[in-house]
Amino acid sequence: MAGRPFVSVDEMNSIIINNHNQMVGPEDDLYILGDVCMGQRSQMPDLIRRLQGKLHLVAGNHDEGLLKNPDNHSLFASVDKLLEIEVPGDGKGHQRQMIVMCHFALESWHRNHKGSWMLHGHSHGTLNSPDTMLRLDVGVDMTAKRLGYTADSYRPLTFEEIRRYMSTKKFEPVDHHGAS
After folding, report:
1. Rounded to two decimals, what is the model's pTM?
2. Which of 3, 77, 72, 7 is nearest to 37 (CA)?
3. Which domain, by its residues, includes 133?
4. Best CA proximity match to 28, nearest among 49, 56, 47, 50
5. Rounded to whole angstroms, how far apart are CA atoms 116 and 100?
6. Potential cystine with 54: which of 75, 77, 112, 142 (Cβ 3.0-4.6 Å)?
7. CA-CA distances (angstroms) from residue 97 to 48, 120, 142?
8. Is residue 48 in a domain?
9. Domain annotation covers residue 23
10. CA nearest 28: which of 53, 56, 58, 57?
């Protein structure tokens, strides 16, 4: 359980699902960047059905067993290996934001030289991203680390939390495109 503060997998699942459902409403879009759950494949669909929201899975290495059954694809609004979305501006000074999502951290991604973000999971907080790179580990272990490793810190990040974190970075485009 990656050093998580739970006495059992059942307790962990229950708390993470409860934390999720306190933050995510039935009509909210939630992007899961891989490894949605581990354990006995027969229990996975029931656990996923307990999660509120429109679940978009960007599949990770531990999702292969779940996704072998084509019926399990219907648990998600979408299933991808890499996903690009654009969040529109809000009219309050925040411009539109391009986001590239993959389970695995990428060193270079579409429009990174123009300020697009790279969100990923997989590394459980063990991979450093320089302050000049707009890449962020949004996995549940990294979220908990940022929020203090309490049971209620094992939850999804909101777009606003991600935006606040990304605003602390001093973005410098570094690739063959340059800053233009």
Report:
1. 0.89
2. 72
3. 9-166
4. 56
5. 7
6. 77
7. 28, 16, 22
8. yes
9. yes
10. 53
Give a yes or no: residue 171 inside a domain: no
Residues 164 and 160: their CA atoms lie apart, in Å, by 6
Residue 136 included in any domain: yes
Closest CA to 51 of 73, 35, 78, 32: 32
Q: Where are the beta strands (DSSP E) in 10-106?
A: 29-32, 54-58, 78-80, 82-87, 97-102
Calculate the CA 130 to chain-centre distance: 19
Is the Cβ–Cβ distance between 118 and 102 less than 8 Å? Answer: yes
Q: What is the CATH classification number for the domain harbouring 63?
A: 3.60.21.10
Long-range (24+ apart) CB contacts under 8 A made by 15-20 are: 15/151, 15/152, 15/154, 16/140, 16/154, 16/155, 17/47, 17/50, 17/51, 19/151, 19/152, 19/154, 19/155, 20/51, 20/52, 20/53, 20/155, 20/156
Write down the pLDDT at residue 1.
Answer: 47
The percent of residues above 70 in pLDDT, for the chain, comes to 93
pLDDT tens, residue by residue, 88-124 = 988 787 889 999 999 999 999 999 989 999 999 988 7
Q: 38, 40, 32, 33: which is closest to 1 by C-alpha?
A: 38
For residues 34 and 142, give the distance between their C-alpha atoms in angstroms, rounded to a whole number.
Answer: 14
How many domains, the chain?
A: 1
Length of the chain: 180
Are 138 and 173 in contact, with CB atoms under 8 Å apart?
no
